[in-house]
Write a structure and sequence with these properties.
There is one protein chain. This protein has four helices and 30 strands. By secondary structure, it is mainly beta. The protein starts with 9 loop residues before the first strand and ends with a strand. About 25% of the residues are buried.
Length: about 600
């Protein structure tokens, strides 16, 4: 859950591209994201942030469902300090937020019976979180560190799976397609690290996480997650700067939910045990080679086990001053989750169906990239370009169809299925830079562009059968796609672009960002079939409306955000932030409306 991340204490976000390392796990084929938190300096630090904002009325006034102000507000704090003689670190943080939700409750048609009526007040979201980091550096044993991190969160949230319609009720939910949840989640992370004078590093890390999620529609879950890991590393200078890393990890998940009874019982568990090793060899300052192997074993309940090895290799070469060439080749492997195999529940007029025969997804990835540092007058930065190629076997996709032969559980809905072999090729370009003019002026820029071509390699492969009212359907890519001519996988954007520019003058900064998503070239044909089926009921079933929106609005989306901030007397910072500045009415996935313009005032106090 991204809500658990202590954003008020983030030190660094590192994006590692490619599949050159086995340390990130078998499913991290395209890379990994690492989030590192801050530890205290000698000087204690306290930071308090508060904000308040509101949603603008939609671009189409008739789509406004609320009266008064659709507000959002929140506050967060952080305090960090070293205790005693400086061998102990303590960080405490927390936050609280509340918003009215930009999506309103369902308003079903006059002939539709809503089994779980919901009002607008129930759509509100609230979240409270408190976290701590404690670290002790031993003053008796050199190199010994140990500590305990913890996090507690209570959250009340509404999740909407489909809109009421694609016009006036664009920002209202479909009857039964709202999940209201009251969630309590907490975790404890004990750890011990020992760094010896001989260059040995031993790292023991653990996590115990418990989540209790009470939800409507009989979709409540209770889960326990236990993670244990040991990692050993050593540098061998006598072997010419050879680094070795090895370790073992264990991940145990125990989940109780009535919607998982398709397994035979509401209680299910999944255990993953992995062993890995990796070596890295440096040849002077120019060449770096790495390679590793990871063995993964999964056990689901007492019936399903799967074991697979994965191999990954990579190289980086310094070609010149601030010019780096990299390449990687790696395998990937993803075992289906408990949810993907066994979920069986209803969401309004449609359902989510189980697939206990779902197979593991395997893949391999190759990448070649170049990173070039540059300086042009007062502007300096990095340009990074990479070409990548990926192939998947037993590709897992979330597809819409008429999966219930009796039509008593739900006439249609989604199911995870293996769709055969697929391929993704593309290019990724990023440019980050900064320009300084004199003592007070500064310009910061970030730019990223990704082009992908995701295609099926088996367009005629029949991977499933459903029970369409017009006759049983053989599911292949060709038969289940709205636009199969180019063999493009469903629900994909071929082009995405993100750009950000910020102007700084003394303590004043003004910035703007732009995001672009190209049109969706393909989706499930069954969505249109289900629309026809619901419309044909004459109003006894709420119509699912999407075809008209797809045909007239599937042209890509440009979203503009803006911000302005001012720092006053070092300790104070004021900001005005707007997301979706142009108040665009848009959707990035079928049947889901994205937020209208939001305007927020923010104040930060540093002590």
């Amino acid at each position: 859950d991204w809500s658990l991340i202590p954003v008020e204490n983030i030190k660094q976000i590192e994006v590692v591209k490619g599949a050159a390392s086995v340390l990130s796990g078998s499913s991290a084929l395209s890379g990994a994201i690492y989030i590192r938190t801050n530890y205290p300096d000698i000087q204690p630090k306290t930071k308090i942030k508060t904000y308040a904002g509101w949603m603008s009325p939609p671009q189409s006034p008739a789509s406004r469902w609320w009266e008064g102000v659709n507000y959002s507000s929140g506050v967060s704090f952080l305090h960090s300090r070293q205790l005693g003689n400086g061998h102990t670190d303590l960080v405490i943080g927390g936050m609280f937020s509340s918003d009215k939700s930009y999506l309103g409750a369902p308003r079903p048609g006059p002939l539709v019976i809503d089994s779980v009526p919901i009002n607008d007040n129930q759509m509100q979201n609230r979240k409270a979180r408190i976290n701590f980091n404690f670290r002790r550096r031993s003053n008796k044993i050199t190199g010994l560190h140990f500590g305990l991190n913890g996090n507690f969160m209570a959250k009340k949230a509404s999740t909407v799976f489909a809109w009421l319609d694609d016009t006036i009720n664009f920002y209202r939910a479909y009857p039964g397609a709202v999940l209201l949840s009251d969630n309590i989640t907490f975790y404890l992370d004990p750890y011990i690290n020992f760094y010896s004078s001989l260059g040995l590093k031993h790292e023991f890390s653990n996590r115990v996480l418990y989540s209790d999620n009470k939800a409507n529609n009989d979709q409540s879950t209770k889960s326990l997650y236990i993670y244990n890991a040991y990692q050993f590393s050593k540098s061998f200078s006598n072997l010419g700067n050879l680094d070795f890393i090895g370790g073992v990890t264990s991940q145990y998940t125990r989940s109780y939910a009535n919607m998982y009874e398709a397994s035979g019982a509401p209680l299910n568990y999944l255990w993953n045990l992995s062993v890995f090793m990796e070596v890295e060899k440096k040849f002077g300052d120019a060449l770096n080679l790495s390679g590793g192997i990871r063995m993964e074993n999964y056990q689901l309940n007492d019936s399903i086990t799967d074991t697979k090895p994965i191999l990954r290799v990579g190289a980086s070469i310094k070609l010149g001053q601030e010019t780096y060439l990299r390449t990687s080749l790696g395998q990937g492997y993803r075992f289906p989750t408990i949810t993907e195999r066994y979920i069986r529940t209803t969401v309004g007029s449609f359902g989510v169906f189980d697939n206990p025969d779902l197979k593991s997804e395997t893949s391999w990835n190759s990448e070649i990239g170049i990173k070039q540092g540059f300086k042009f007058k007062n502007y300096y930065g990095y340009l990074d370009m990479a070409l990548f190629y990926q192939e998947y076997d037993n590709t897992i996709e979330y597809l819409f169809g008429f999966w219930d032969s009796t039509y008593t559980f739900a006439p249609a809905g989604f199911k995870f299925v293996n769709t055969g072999k697929s391929k993704i090729t593309g290019i990724d370009i990023s440019l980050n830079g900064q320009a300084r003019f004199g003592k007070y002026y500064e310009i910061n820029t970030m730019f990223g562009y990704t082009y992908v071509m995701p295609v099926t390699l088996q367009p005629d492969y029949i991977f499933a059968h459903d029970f369409n009212p017009g006759g049983q359907t053989e599911f292949s890519y060709e038969s289940s796609s709205v636009n199969p001519s180019k063999r493009i996988l469903k629900y994909r954007y071929l082009h995405t672009l993100k750009a950000d520019i910020e102007f700084v003058y003394k303590n004043l900064s003004v910035g703007s960002s732009v995001r672009f998503f190209s049109k969706t070239d393909n989706l499930d044909r069954a969505i249109f079939d289900f629309e026809d089926a619901t419309v044909s009921t004459g109003g006894t079933m709420q119509p699912i409306l999407y075809r008209n929106y797809y045909e007239h609005h599937n042209n890509g989306n440009v979203i503009v955000d803006a911000r302005i901030s001012y720092k006053w007397m070092i300790r104070h910072e004021f900001a005005l932030i707007s997301s979706n500045l142009l108040n665009r009415m848009y959707s990035l996935r079928p049947l889901k409306a994205e937020p209208m313009r939001n305007i927020t005032f923010q104040y930060i106090l540093n002590l």
